Amino acid sequence: MPIDPKPEDLQPSDAAQVADVLAWAAAGKKTVELVGAGSKSALGRPVETDYRLHLSALEGVNLYEPEELVLRAGAATPLGQIQAMLAQQNQQLAFEPPDFGELYGHAREQTIGGVLAANLAGPRRIKAGAARDHFLGLEAVSGRGAAFKSGGRVVKNVTGYDLCKLMAGSFGTLAALTEVTVKVLPAPEKIRTVLLFGQDDRAAIAAMSQAACSPHEVSALAHLPKAIAARSAVGYVNGAGRAVTAVRVEGPAPSVAHRAEALRRLWGGKGNVEELHAHNSNTLWREVGNVASLLPDADAVIWKLSVTPSMGSEVMAAALVTGGAGYYDWAGGLLWLALPVGNDSGDGRGDGGAGLVRASLGGDGHATLMRGGVELRRRVDVFQPTAAPLAALSARIKASFDPHGILNPGRMHGAY
């Protein structure tokens, strides 16, 4: 494929041309930003490159076997197209990928490759696992311009290294995904959400822990403080006038009815309880996963914190000591925070609260800057800084796949 070095945008038409482009770029040490739909361009550190490599031609479902619970598609296949196809067979991506389009202020539809590269998962992660746990196989092109594949069509594929786990969460810094294979699962027959009203943060986390440790196979647990609950589109939630703690159960209808009733009894001694059926349940958990409608200040800096659930309320209080708002997902193990854009942790550096947020972790957990201005994302660590040995290992992995550092340079860390 002849390459014209003048255009800023490169648009290969297939995987072979992706390999040609990256081999050319590696030979000339030209840096390249990988772009699918561009829905996550504001997630991570800003990338400044010589070229943008658009992968939008790599779309389409190449294999779907509902009876085998497996789907293979081009990495740039729109997620909505895949979800619609799965819905026709009463199946789903069990890791419940969130849609951050509204959070970033655009309507661009995300791609299956982008979801896997960012390792995104929604409220069901506590039961189903992360995106990487459903990532069975891939075809990709390294920063050397070399095409490679890994994995296959079954979960217990043990041929070679499990590169799917490595690529998930690498944000395109190791290779350009061209084709991906994912495990799909049956959609639940019934969904119910039990609501508990009026708990403070500490009591809510205790209640969520009790439900999570019960035999009732819950699939999501979240707590919305009063001001956050008031922003929900679900009447039982926004009209409560109090904090709302929610737990979801899914599965066959008789089982769901039994488990929902058992959870109502479990929580009944703590306060008033209510129950949401399918439509309202889906609305609520979509809000929890997608974030933007519950933290609607378009100017706020958004942080995501992963913590030990039992420490969630203490971390939240410490992180919001200078103002802001937040709520809990994953039974208190995931905190979403919106901080005032001018927050500088009291040191005048304009760090979007990075110092305060990371200090609130107390050395346990990690914090990711999910939304912030370009200059802020240049100035602070978007992803949690890693210990020196782990950083050295990451650098060696990066060098093995992308020795010249041409792929999304600086997207995750300043050095790579």
Walk me through this protein's architecture:
- It is a single chain.
- Helices cover 30% and strands 23% of the residues.
- It has 416 residues and is α+β, with helices and mostly antiparallel strands.
- The chain has three domains: 1-187 and 386-416, Uridine Diphospho-n-acetylenolpyruvylglucosamine Reductase, domain 3; 190-290, Alpha-Beta Plaits (2-Layer Sandwich), CATH 3.30.70.2190; 301-379, Alpha-Beta Plaits.
- It has a five-stranded antiparallel sheet with strand order 4-5-9-7-8.
- A hairpin with a 4-residue loop joins β4 and β5 (70-74).
- α11 (312-319) packs antiparallel against α12 (354-360).
- The chain is globular, with a radius of gyration of 22 Å.
Proportion of β residues?
Answer: 15-25%
The total domain count is 3
Overall mean pLDDT score? Answer: 93
Poorly predicted runs of 5 or more residues = 1-7
Largest sheet: 5 strands, antiparallel
Strand order of the largest sheet: 4-5-9-7-8
What is the number of helical segments per DSSP (H or I, 4+ residues)?
14
| C-alpha end-to-end distance | 28 Å
Overall radius of gyration: 22 Å
Helix content range: 25-40%
Question: Would you state the CATH class of the largest domain?
Answer: Alpha Beta
Gross geometry: globular
**What is CATH's topology name of the largest domain?**
Uridine Diphospho-n-acetylenolpyruvylglucosamine Reductase, domain 3
Main features:
23% strand, 3 domains, single chain, alpha+beta, Alpha-Beta Plaits, four-stranded antiparallel β-sheet, Uridine Diphospho-n-acetylenolpyruvylglucosamine Reductase, domain 3
